[in-house]
Amino acid sequence: MTERSLRRISGIGPQIARSTGGEQDALWIVSREGQILYANAHADGLAARVSDDFLSLIALEDRSALTTVIENREARFAVRTAEGRPIVGEVAYIEGDAVVLTVRGALRSSARARAVLQSIPDLVFEVTAEGRCVRFKSSFLGEPFVSGDRFLGRTVVECMPRNVADATMAMIETALRTRAVQRIEYRLARASGPRAYECRMTATDHGTVVAIVRDVTLERETQAKLNATNEALQQFTFLASHDLRAPLRAIGQLASFIEEDLELGDASDTSAHIQDLKERVKRMD
Length: 285
Hints:
The protein is α+β, with helices and mostly antiparallel strands. It contains 10 helices and 10 strands.
């Protein structure tokens, strides 16, 4: 494709987009060599990165399949992005061997996903098998250990204390291998003092894991106070029970003495026994 053709197609990209794609669609115009001549805002959002090379946006193992689709002038493609997100779209061919790649309804599905995500009050991460963060949503209940702009594109090992990072990497591997929800708790030192966090992680269908992290410091502190109160109550109950046993045994013994006196018809000590019994009862009041 000549330089003149590239400039012309780049210049009319918005018009091509309006005539080829809908308002909800992600759309790229790409040269035969893979150079992106035009991409609308939905396309940039769907790819989650900016690049002049369209193939760099596609998972390495899917690039040859997409190239084959374009070379054979097929009408549809199904690949994964470099972050592992599956996309299915249509291919149109225009002059100069440029192609228009369209993912229908990308904005609608992305908006729905964002709405669900934003309704979750916790920190949400999407990380690769290597622990690299490709998506991040902050919490409106507290601040993350590392801000989103510092976490995106970096690995867990680079951002977190080593003991937490090692445990998290082991949980990522287990989540991907077993497809079961994983859970871990850890503590981090913050300016306001140590904080407790709970992380739940599950594998996605495209080789990444989604982790939801919640600050559970208040819950754990409340639970600790409740446990301490219960322990103190149990201790008090034990001591109260022990203190009650002695006078009750004495009362029982005095009642036995009075019973024996009445059986023998000897009431000389009965009055003293009754008086002693009253004293024991008074002590318990």
